[in-house]
Amino acid sequence: MTLSPENLKYLPSHEWVYAPQDGSGVATIGISAFAVAELNDLVYMALPKVGQPLEAGQEFGEVESVKAVSPMYSPISGQIVQVHEGIVDRLESLNSDAYAGGWLIKVKISDPSQLDGLLDYQAYQKLLAQHG
Amino acid sequence: MSGVSIVVISDSPRPGLENMEIDQRLLLGANDPSFLKGLDAAWNQPAIIVRLYYWSEPTLSLGNFQSIQELETAQDTKRFSGLKRLPWVQRKTGGGAILHDQELTYSVIVPSGCESLPLGSKGHSERLYRAVHESVVEGLVAFGLDAKLSESCTCSFGKGRPEPFLCFHRRTPVDVLVGQSKILGSAQRRVKSGLLQHGSFLISKSSEYPDFEGVGDLGNLPARYQSGPVEVWQGWLEARIFRAIQHLIGPPERVLRLNLPDASVRI
Question: What's the CATH number where A102 sits?
Fold first, then answer.
């Protein structure tokens, strides 16, 4: 299973999580291409530090577009093991790749069952269709 | 009826930190009417909140991602070293720094799930932003001023150069201009409970930074606005914002107006 939109789980607030079945227990988290388009012209992003614990639904960072600051929420609980620090200096790259190259943090999952409560790709597409 | 209620708070001047803490509390409690119950025991529903206020002393508010150290190196502030002596506070909304002196600040808080005013799901709400600014332009044009929305942008994304430190040196589409002078800029913050829109309306030049003209410096206004106290403009701006929200949601179900002339009143 590769990190592509069809293989991800989503929050209604447009964060995605990729949890490969490779035994590592480490999930990758980012924001969807839809979110990047909605935010429109990202100017700043703040990401957390490695080692920080996260609860599902907790803010893990903030992003500022031209007119708004929006928090980003963690889909799962766990501990941050890696942060994509370079992305904050080239936020424009999220416009072309919000997924494999646009990941934001990696988290050691503490409760894998939380993944079952997230939206799959089809449910997320349905949500986007409702947004029009 | 829109099914949505509006609470309008005309607040007294307060220190910067208190002003920002109040807006943050109103935003985080946007879906919880308990705050409003403290002001009006009969209140039992979330509402769109409009708060008009000014500051008890000249104060800088920095955008969410700005640091006070930037003031040391910013090109647009180096002629005015006095700015460094002013108290400052961090805003939760984005954009550039604002000198709160001879100006009015407003906040609009919209609870999430407000069906009459859907906010979208990420980023800024163009509808709310534009509606407030268009209403202000309409009011200023009625005074005979050359008011309009900006179409230019000094935005830094992808250009590798910093934006000016001060908000009123920046231009983004839909800023309110009188002639070429920006007199109103706004920015937003979105959280799970709702959306906060902050705006700053310049009334007249500040001696702390006289480069920026306010609305009173830019044309022949009716006498009560030309020389009137800030409360006159507070009432005017409140009416323009109220009109903008009504335009978006229709007639509100209920309106609660709170005049808080005493800063000892806790919000």
Answer: 2.40.50.100
| Least Cα separation, residue B63 to chain A (angstroms) | 10
Question: Per-residue pLDDT tens for B240-253?
Answer: 999 999 999 999 98
Note whether A39 contacts B123, CB cutoff 8 Å: yes
Please count the residues of chain B. Answer: 267
Helices and strands counted in chain A (H then E): 2, 9
Helices H, strands E: what count in chain B? 6, 11
Reported pTM: 0.90
ipTM confidence: 0.82
Looking at the 3D structure of chain A, how many domains does it have?
Answer: 1
**A49 at B interface, C-beta within 8 A:** no
Distance CA B57, CA B39 (A): 26
Closest C-alpha to B156, from A31, A92, A104: A92
**Which ranges of B124-253 does DSSP label H, i.e. alpha helix?**
126-142, 223-226, 230-249
| A22: in domain | yes
